[in-house]
Specification:
The structure is a single chain. This protein folds into 2 domains: 2-173 and 346-360, Rossmann fold (3-Layer(aba) Sandwich), CATH 3.40.50; 176-344, Rossmann fold (3-Layer(aba) Sandwich). The protein contains 14 helices and 13 strands. It has a 7-stranded parallel β-sheet, sandwiched between helices. Strands 10-9-8-11-12-13 form a 6-stranded parallel β-sheet, with helices on both faces. It is of the alpha/beta class and 362 residues long. Helix 1 (18-30) crosses helix 14 (347-360). It has helices at residues 18-30, 71-86, 111-114, 122-141, 150-160, 185-189, 216-225, 242-246, 262-271, 286-293, 306-310, 327-332, 339-344, 347-360; strands spanning 2-7, 38-44, 61-64, 89-92, 104-106, 144-147, 167-169, 204-207, 231-234, 254-258, 274-277, 298-301, 315-317.
Length: 362
């Protein structure tokens, strides 16, 4: 029986971001498969407050181990030591990068390598150096590396001199949105419904973090140059103080909501005139696929892997050109149907790819 210890601390942490979504949905699908020959354990700290939310797995066993409360030290000490004691292979899908033992790891983009100017404060610079050191060690020591797209894989090969034989493609998908019921209260919460007619006001929606490479500067410039258009920006404000420098918070035609539930995000996607994704770098880009599955038009940056993933289903723009930005002209362009993209990606097929990786290494 081959044991697999999965790094799970951030999956028990409450809020779900893109990386956690990817990891959780793959594990959810694996749990429904024939796991003969595999014993998979999802390892979380002993004190993890919300680990019970992961206890619905039937075949994947939830394990609490390690009392160290510092997240970095738990990932670097408690988790690998548990795996060593259990003689288990380790799987890290959430960028914890435990250098002591990391047999299979996800490396998803080269943001830290390609955008050093985004890390401005001393703390951010130290975080970047720590990540780069861990990523270099893990890329050399690991047996397999998971990538989300071919474009990201090529970037990672160049940045870390990774042999192609070590990379395995396991893309993201969108079917989790089927389980989410839209919460229409968000439209009233942010006054997106006209009081006189009850109709939803036209708006453009953006979902993403406030990290600089997500390029909210483009949204700010679009709002300044299109004052009659309304922009709604959703995502955590906890990760960076970058949003203040964009001027978004001062623009009257921009609503910055902060972090919202999946139910509210789905409602905003579904009722938007279009969803905009202006990122300068992506390993995959789940939000546009969620938007497509909700029936929204998507306006995408032509940078990174996005054209590879979304093909003709999107309208593209250059995210480094900040003037002129004419929303009416972008909206006048035709895009192909979403069906081909949505059929191409599924969590089940991606989980089957991951299962094959788990089975092929000893």
């Amino acid at each position: 029986m081959k044991r697999i210890a999965v790094l799970g601390d951030t999956l028990a942490g409450g809020k779900i971001y893109g990386i956690q979504r990817f990891a959780y949905e793959l594990l959810r699908q694996l749990d429904r498969m024939d796991l003969s020959g595999l014993e998979i354990e999802l390892v979380v700290p002993e004190y993890a407050p919300e680990a019970e939310s992961l206890a619905g797995f039937k075949k994947i066993r939830l394990v609490r181990s390690g009392r160290i409360r510092n997240a970095f030290l738990w990932r670097q000490i408690c988790f690998p030591l548990y795996a060593i004691r259990r003689r288990a292979l380790t799987l890290d899908l959430t960028l914890g990068l435990p250098v002591l033992k990391c047999d299979i790891a996800g490396l998803y983009d080269c943001t830290y390598e390609l955008f050093p100017e985004d890390f401005r404060t001393f703390r951010e610079k130290m975080k970047r150096l720590s990540y780069l050191a861990k990523a270099r060690l893990v890329s050399r020591r690991s047996k397999r590396l998971i990538v989300l797209s071919r474009t990201a894989g090529e970037q990672l090969k160049r940045c870390y001199r990774i042999p192609a034989s070590k990379l395995r493609l396991v893309p993201c998908a969108w079917q989790h949105l089927k389980r989410i019921r839209e919460d229409l209260s968000v439209l009233d919460e942010f006054e997106l419904v006209r009081k006189d007619s009850g109709q939803v006001r036209p708006y453009y929606f953006t979902l993403g973090s406030v990290l600089p490479h997500k390029n909210l500067k483009w949204i700010a410039e679009a709002a300044r140059q299109n004052p009659d258009s309304l922009f709604v920006v959703t995502g955590s404000l906890e990760l960076s103080d970058y949003i203040g420098s964009t001027g978004l918070l001062e623009l009257e035609n921009v609503i910055v909501t902060g972090y919202l539930t999946d139910e509210k995000v789905k409602a905003l996607m579904k009722h938007a005139a279009a969803c905009i994704h202006p990122s300068l770098s992506e390993g995959f880009g789940i939000p546009p696929m969620e938007a497509l599955s909700a029936g929204s038009r998507i306006l995408l940056s032509d940078a990174g892997c996005l054209p590879e993933i979304y093909g003709g289903s999107a309208v593209y723009f250059d995210p480094r050109i900040y003037a002129p930005i004419r929303m009416e002209e972008l909206m006048s362009r035709e895009a192909g149907p979403a069906g081909d993209v949505l059929k191409k990606y599924s969590w089940r097929r991606s989980a089957l790819r991951l299962k094959k990786v788990l089975e092929e290494i000893g």
